[in-house]
Design goal:
Layout: H1 8-13, H2 23-37, H3 44-64, H4 72-82, H5 91-94, H6 97-104, H7 112-122, H8 140-148
Helix pairs in contact: 2-3
């Protein structure tokens, strides 16, 4: 075992980075991380410190400030609101105003082409516009078949 790690408890007692337990520690680690990432030419030990602090900050934030995944309709509505757009502004991505409206009201899912178009327009990963595994499309299909047979 290396001499640096021969006594990890002593290392932590002397101020080595450790798990973040509260928001005050998160703020301290985040400030330290900002200072390190602002360096023009960080040394190898500074790069390692950046990596370690990043892991610790991400771990704490995932446990305490996780962002729930949103459904595609909510994402598009949010983007429309945040960018002061109208449904008409999305016609190039959807093909028609009625397609935009039907999607926003939940009457229609996005096509693969629409997902690609939205991803390119908003510079976001395509999976943001795809329904999550818990959303099933098969539940809607039988209802359509029954309504056709009437």
């Amino acid at each position: 075992m290396s001499t640096v790690l021969s006594n990890p408890a002593e290392m932590i007692a002397h101020g080595a980075p450790r798990l973040i337990h509260n928001d005050a520690e998160l703020e301290m680690y985040t400030n330290a991380l900002f200072q390190l990432t602002a360096l023009e030419r960080p040394s190898s030990s500074e790069v390692e410190a950046i990596e370690l602090l990043t892991l610790l900050v991400e771990r704490y934030e995932q446990e305490h400030y996780s962002i729930p995944e949103a459904d595609p309709v909510s994402v598009v509505r949010f983007l429309i609101e945040q960018q002061n757009l109208t449904q008409r502004d999305l016609i190039p991505q959807f093909g028609s105003e009625s397609a935009v409206s039907m999607f926003i009201t939940g009457q229609r899912n996005l096509t693969l082409e629409q997902v690609r178009n939205l991803s390119a327009r908003f510079n976001l990963p395509a999976d943001v516009f795809m329904p999550k595994a818990s959303v099933t499309h098969s539940a809607k299909r039988p209802a359509k078949k029954r309504s056709r047979s009437r």
